[in-house]
């Protein structure tokens, strides 16, 4: 889905006309959550979610949590719905066999860091992960899915755009009302500079500040180069701004809808346009797993990773969850 431009502007006519539909969407979501008793599994579940449709940085935060748990010796598995993929699951992702069309792009990224399970039925997916030896589960997205009990729920927000115009889909980017979502969350993660006063909305909950930092080697290769930048993520302009900041000269910006499946002819045309101007085609790691394999090596990829302002604050959140999971496992 391509993010409507009006979602991140003050409410106007288009947003106002769609507001009644947003109210119905929100009511349906509140009833679903209120009417569901979450099921527990025999491992702690850390949910990385957001309150808006489109990208807020969930998957990089999920990867950072996987790395933090690995550093503590925890056998962590990832769990995701597999948005954009055809497989309903539950199944374990095999990057050598599965494509983004099978399991979605987030699943392939997560599978590069930990065993990853795709499951539209999150409880069934978590149970399969536990049976396969998971000592903890990091769930990418699923915050609005009430079926699986969450031992730690983090809301990720982009500090640059916050919660947009404050209205619910389709009148705005919100999946649910901000107050409702934050009331169920254990902490708020703000990526980038907080330009929208998000920390003040946390209501006393911990606020973790973090930044997305480009891979140093890739950044060095791109600095000073002419590039044709393309991205099919929630906010492609965020990727373009990153390239500007690291000193690349962006001669063309080609935005696509989130999870866009690149066709061979389409990618070949982008590569040809870049070559005609002496530019280097460059995209995100999330886009890279959706590129046709035969052309993937002709595109530069700029990975990013999360840098925490205070890693101790993250450890403070994770420690009691892991201790609880350890004691529950012994009791079982």
Task: Write up what this structure looks like.
Transfers the gamma-phosphate of ATP to the 4'-position of a tetraacyldisaccharide 1-phosphate intermediate (termed DS-1-P) to form tetraacyldisaccharide 1,4'-bis-phosphate (lipid IVA). Belongs to the LpxK family. This is Tetraacyldisaccharide 4'-kinase. This protein has 332 residues and is an alpha/beta fold. It folds into two domains: 222 residues, Rossmann fold (3-Layer(aba) Sandwich); 87 residues. 37% of the residues lie in helices and 20% in strands. Helix 8 links the parallel strand 9 and strand 10. It is globular, with a radius of gyration of 20 Å. The model has no long low-confidence stretch (mean pLDDT 93).
Summarize the structure.
Its EC number is 2.7.1.130. With 332 residues, this protein is α/β, with parallel strands linked by helices.
Secondary structure layout:
Layout (H helix, E strand, L loop, with lengths): L12 H22 L10 E5 L8 H14 L4 E5 L10 E2 L7 H4 L1 H7 L4 E3 L3 H10 L4 E5 L11 E7 L19 H7 L2 E5 L15 E8 L1 H7 L3 E6 L4 H10 L3 E7 L8 H13 L3 E5 H4 L4 H4 L3 E3 L1 E5 L2 H21 L1
Parallel strand pairs: 1-5, 1-6, 2-4, 2-5, 6-7, 7-8, 9-10, 9-11, 11-12
Antiparallel strand pairs: 3-4, 8-13
Tags for this model:
332 residues; alpha/beta; Rossmann fold; 2 domains; nine-stranded mixed beta sheet; 13 strands; lipid metabolism; ATP-binding; kinase; ATP binding; nucleotide-binding
CATH architecture of the largest domain: 3-Layer(aba) Sandwich
Q: In DSSP terms, counting alpha (H) and pi (I) runs of 4 or more, how many helices? A: 12
Helix content: 25-40%
- C-alpha termini separation: 43 Å
Function: Transfers the gamma-phosphate of ATP to the 4'-position of a tetraacyldisaccharide 1-phosphate intermediate (termed DS-1-P) to form tetraacyldisaccharide 1,4'-bis-phosphate (lipid IVA).
GO biological process, one term: lipid A biosynthetic process
Family: Belongs to the LpxK family.
EC number: 2.7.1.130
